[in-house]
Amino acid sequence: MCKVKQNISSGFETDLSILRKQHVETLHRIKPENPEDYTVQTYLCNNCNFDTYFVLKFLQHTKTCLQNKQSRGRKWLKCDKCNYKSKYSNALRGHQITNHLKDDEIQWHHCDKCAYKAKQKRYLKIHVHVHHMDEKNTKWYKCQQCPYKTKFEFYLTSHLNTTHLVSKRYKCDQCSYGTNSSSHLKKHKIHKHLRENEIQWYKCESCPYKAKTKPGLRDHQSTVHVQDKDVKWRKCDHCAFKTKQMKNLKLHMFNKHSNENEIVWFECEKCPYKTKHKFSLKMHVNSYHLTGSEITWFRCDKCSYKAKRQFTLRNHVNAVHLNEEDIKWHQCDHCNYKTKHSKNLKTHAKTLHSSETKWHYCDKCSHKTKYSSGLKRHLKTQHGSE
């Protein structure tokens, strides 16, 4: 927020070009007699009469206002294979390439430094920028309110809107949920409020699995049905961890290799619990501190069972209501062990078949265990530690 006089050489800094342009070039439409001094009052939109003292609100408005101005008067262009429509021909073309062309019909854009290929040139540019750009030549866009940083200005703007903007633009009409992302609201309604028969399911062609969203089905197919020789593993630079999905690698990096002084902890107001993840804090509060009607229950649509956590409900459905032929078994590659839960298989493989066992040692006695949960239980039962 800026409301005071500033000398243009003294001080204003930002990683966002939209703010630089607005602050330095247009100078809030004020033309002072002395070009050295600028009385900054409010952020004003160039396309309408909107003004605000708040940078984040200004960013949000500018984006939508410009889009509305550009699209005004344009005709809708409809896809001839589905319900998708857009006012921009390049967006429609990108949709058709991504969703409807067969692999042998696509003009692939290949990376000249690795095996990556993309259906659209812009995705290849992003890939090169993210994976092959030298660190010293990388321009980072950093959030001024938390440790978040990104190589793309768009992602920083999106981060500001979804994370730090207090007022929520999109609100759920069935509960108190609010967000500044329309796609987040759509996901929320699908996962929280739609009944089984109202959901447009995306079904896997290779097994009984079905997903509530198309990205969910894509994740399943890339994780479960890709042959080992075709898997593109995402490997950690700091340890032996590898995964098939980039989001899992990012989560691993954040959980295991973040610098302590860069971590923003989410702390519980009612107990010493703290976590690196906002959703984990919400889950903790819902599980341990809410009572009665305050609790968000996840209810089974086949019986009276209810749970405070979604994955607990999912485990219940898998264990109780799935037919034998519909169960997705996770089979061990080294023995006959199989389980309904991928987490159990990972624990089994790590405990029985891994040559790199990580022992968890008690600092009060000689006890050791392969499980962090086992160490916590030991400390609590044997030493009275919480």
TrEMBL record:
Zinc-finger in keyword set: yes
SUPFAM superfamilies: beta-beta-alpha zinc fingers
Keywords attached to this entry: Metal-binding, Repeat, Zinc, Zinc-finger
Gene Ontology terms: cellular component: nucleus
Residues forming coiled coils: none
Gene Ontology process terms (BP): positive regulation of transcription by RNA polymerase II
C2H2-type domain boundaries: 170-198, 202-230, 298-326, 330-358, 360-386
GO terms assigned for molecular function: zinc ion binding
Keyword Zinc-finger on entry: yes
Protein name: C2H2-type domain-containing protein
